[in-house]
Amino acid sequence: MSERMTKGSVIAQYLPERVTPVGETIAPVFAPSNIALCKYWGKRDVELNLPINSSLSISLAHLGTQTRLSVSDEDAVWLNGEKVAAQDKFARKVIAFIDLFRGPQGSPVKVETDNNIPTAAGLASSASGFAALMLAIDGFYGLKLDPQCLSAFARMGSGSASRSLYTGFVEWQMGVREDGMDSIALPLDSHWDALRIGLVKVSVAEKAVDSRSGMNRTVETAHLYQSWPLQAAADLERLHQAIADKNFTQLGETAEQNALSMHATMIAAWPPLLYWQPGSVAAMHRIWQARAEGVEVYFTMDAGPNLKLLFTAEAEAAVKHYFPDMEVIAPFG
Ligand code: ADP
Ligand code: DP6
Predict the structure, then answer these.
(1) 2 located within any domain
(2) What is the full DSSP assignment across 238-306?
(3) Which end of the chain has fewer CB within 10 Å, C or N?
(4) Atom of ligand 2 nearest to the CA of 262
């Protein structure tokens, strides 16, 4: 039987013998957050974050993470201008990821990272966070990794980060290789200028159960999860077709059903997982009411209480009537 692969053993094969900083610091690098229209939910390998299904996302343009690495006397992580305690899970995860490249004996670094989306609230900070960190590592150590490696390695930080190396529509192909080097994201060659995303923030507090734990709990305990790979495969097909045909109805219906199917598997986990709050359910009803009144708007949701609305530019004013406080993003604008 082959030995179980680790992140370190896979990454090491693509690194030079010595990994050292090329200078004192680098210019900050940015990665956009992304929202999946067909979700990544469940892993076939929890060490390498290899998914059970392929997924498809849309990037959130200017919303995401900016990260810079510098030479330092000690390892230090700063988030949104504040130093994070070294023993905090956030700092430990960031440093452990850097260790995969510089090695545990590597020289200390200062990490300065800024999220212009709420952190750990179901607005995909882990996606932009690890994608920006991957790009910063590549620049700081002069690795010059190709886009496939950047996507595969960012995935080892957080699965959804594999998709945050690109803008627009992005597909993360699940791949079949044991080392996961074919489990990478690729941008779709499609623009949809009129597409809009509305962020409806119900709560930006840090959620009690992170996406990773929620996903693992669902796979391990929910019988309903067995139907998920079939749902995801069918939805991926429908989304590709909708994007090719610029069929907004098909895009919106598929994304909304995909999100609700994912949440159904979580509700069927044990202990049950319900990320929705009363405000999330109220927003869903408002969306369904808007649709009944002829306004074409759909939603998707990740592992958190907030909603992301999908609509087109021509419906923006009408959607704002129902959600006056939403933040509107033009992903191709
Ligand atoms: P979210 O819904 O925001 O993605 P998750 O619980 O899935 O919430 O992920 C939050 C985790 O993502 C954080 O605990 C941290 O490990 C990681 N993360 C968020 N922002 C950054 C960042 N700027 N740099 C590195 N890692 C980050
Ligand atoms: C519901 O990428 O945060 O947002 O790979 O364990 O870090 P890890 O999980 P993460 O999970 C994202 C789950 C999701 C769906 C999606 O973005 O596709």
Answers:
(1) no
(2) HHHHHHHHT-HHHHHHHHHHHHHHHHHHHHTSSS------HHHHHHHHHHHHHHHTT---EEE--SSS-
(3) N
(4) 1
